[in-house]
Amino acid sequence: MNSATLLAYAGAGLAALLAVVVIREQRRSIAHWCFALGMLLVAVENVFVALTLESFDINEIAQWQYLRLITVSLSPVLWLIFSLTYARGNYRDFLSRWRAVWVASAIVPIAAALWIGVRHQALIIAPQIKVQEWILRLNISGSVLNIAVLLSTILSLINLERTFRDSVGTMRWRIKFIVLGVGLFLAVRAYTTSQVLLFRSIDPQLLQINSAALLLGCLVITRSLFRPGHFDQNVYPSKNVLHNSLTVVVTGVYLLIVGVLAKVITYLGSSSAGFTEKALAVLITVVGITVLLTSERVRHWTRRFFSSHFQRPLYDYRKVWKTFTDATASRVEQSELSSAVAKMLSELFQALSVSIWIVDEANQSITNAASTSLSQQSSETIRPTREESFAIITAMRSNPDPQDIDARNEDWAATLRRCHPNQFKQGGHRVAVSMNAGGELLGIIILGDRVSEVPFVLQDFEILKTIADQTAATLRNIQLSQRLAQGKEMQAFQTMSTFFVHDLKNTASTLSLMLQNLPVHFNDPAFREDALRGIGKTVNHINDLIRRLSMLREQMPVRPVETDLNKLVQEALKCVEGAAGIEVSSNFAPLPSISIDPEQVQKVVTNLLLNSKESMTAGKIEVQTAQQTGWAVITVSDTGAGMTPEFMTKQLFRPFQTTKKQGIGIGMFQSRMIVEAHGGRMEVQSELGKGTTFRVLFPFTSKAT
Q: Least crowded by CB within 10 Å, which of 145, 156, 400, 590?
């Protein structure tokens, strides 16, 4: 047994062992099953690789490789689903959004692998000088299989990268080695698959690289098994997984230049001697560098080294403040703000455990809003009681500066230590700072588990207090905005309820009077006819009220067609013709056809005419149309009661506001909605006791939405 075969068997054995360990865990999720099944498949694949490398028969080599390709075709969907679900609290959303992708990653590779068996033409043995030095040439089916595997692998890497980048603190510490181990194996799989596609052949040296990558990846993953909670984290990544993805950039650059480099190497005739050993050495180096770069301890040591030896300030305050502003500016919910601040503080102070507790002084309660180490469920079990909360609030109000709670012996400090348990034996002292705004304690920030147990110094305390106070100010603005929104909702509800009570009271009174008279006059045919007419009128009134109110919450539908505006206005005038005491005059200027919704616009004109008619018992209504620099203008003037400037400014176009005794205050609100939906506008001039003039302007170029 040579070294390459031993490497394949070692990788297979370790992968199978990891699958068994993970599947034996008490809590098994989708990520558990996908990881375990994926590891079992790569273990079987490496067994086929080992059997291939041990074989000296050409046909036997082709048989083992066909079985290997069948195994490979089963794994892409498992790793893609694993990357979508591992350590993600919102994994169901991702599974739903990516359904078509992971279904395709299951169907296409398997179909291509099965087609290889049906056609018997995808694998063509091309023996070299020695029997052991062989190459499998791929036809179309094999190429399709490898393309599907490559795309699925890249998407899996993108998702794993997003999960890792959006984790913070102890969450990142717990999942780091699983992400790195699986990512290492998948990255090398992407490389070797791209080489297979590039040369349309399977080289045994590429199989050995996959085996080496699997062995290294399994060793890295084994390290994660010693960290608790490696499968029980809840990261909530953005659904826009391609945003700022390093995987996409690296893949794009690689696929752009690898073909050229490969051709150059082939042209120069470089020796392949020791290729596997060299690739393995490079792979180990890359893994080591990656582990170091993702180590919080190394990053912290590097930062302190430069700060100490090059006289660099501990913090770049402009950069810190810009980072804080960018992270919190768009947060409009208390939970979003708290999560953003917790993540930012964890990265700034290299503290793996950061918790933000919100204080409700009125109810003497403290609740967890965000944490990089505690789940919502676990924080509820250690939440302070009412008496403990009172003691904490009293102490933090009297001590607004950052407090070392591990150096204090008071009961309130012990409670805060319980609320923020240490995740590491050597994580340094925990620090708590109050968030104050407007003389009120709004919350408490607790930091702990600092990398390398570095103590907090004065500069740390100063910037921590500044960030805490600014967070409190932002939190206060969010709370005030929510109260304002609630006040507006209550005002709208009161307005609606007042309107309904008044209108339905009148309707109920009419029906009640009718029911009282019904036993007395039931035998009178005229009364029954009048009663039925009254009931029908009441029902129509209620239905009309419901219909008009429903328009307040619906988007105004506009279906524009070419329309003669003058003709439309003439039709609308029929609603006021023949009204007693009302003189109607009109003046229509020549207008080109205009793209509007005739039904909706006629409602606007009719509403204006009826308003004019109802505003006076006797008087004059004038209607005009005209052109005005790209606008069609309808003018409706009357000599009615008019409106006050205050009413026009504050109430005219608001629902349930009217000057008419029988009006319900929806018509003008609806009219403006219709006009603005066409891209137009309404103008009004009025003088109390002298009359009102409305001007409705529609653009000749359609802007309907």
A: 590
Q: Provide the β-strand partners of residue 679.
A: none
Instruction: Tell me the three state secondary structure of residue 59.
Output: helix
150/139 Cα distance (integer angstroms): 17
Closest-CA residue to 348 (of 235, 244, 471, 460): 460
Element (H, E) at 150: helix 140-166
**What is the tens place of the pLDDT at every residue in 380-424?**
888 899 899 999 999 998 888 899 998 888 999 999 999 888 877
- How far apart, in whole angstroms, are the C-alpha atoms of residue 604 and residue 600? 7
Q: Could you tell me the two tokens for 572? A: 């609308």
What's the rounded Cα separation, in Å, for the pair 395 and 674? 59
Give the C-alpha separation, 380 to 367, whole Å: 8
Phi first, then psi, for residue 353 (nearest 5°) are: -120, 115
What distance in Å separates the CA atoms of residue 634 and residue 651, rounded to the nearest whole number? 22
DSSP track, 509-544: HHHHHHHHHHHHHTT-HHHHHHHHHHHHHHHHHHHH
DSSP string, 309-343: HTT--S--HHHHHHHHHHHHTT--SHHHHHHHHHH
Cα separation values, 477 from 44, 322, 334, 472, 547, Å:
58, 19, 10, 9, 38
Distance CA 293, CA 164 (A): 13
Q: Give the H or E element holding residue 565.
A: helix 565-572
- pTM exceeds 0.85 for this model: no
C-alpha atoms less than 13 angstroms from C-alpha of 188 in its C-beta half-sphere: 25
Q: What is the reported pLDDT for 662?
A: 47
Q: Which residues contact residue 567 at a Cβ distance below 8 angstroms, ignoring those fewer than 6 apart?
A: none
Please, what are the domains in the chain? 10-294 (no CATH), 317-483 (3.30.450.40), 561-699 (3.30.565.10)
- How many Å apart are CA 114 and CA 222, to the nearest integer? 34
Q: What is the dihedral angle through the alpha carbons of 18, 24, 26, 28, rounded to the nearest 10 degrees?
A: 70
d(CA 691, CA 615): 9
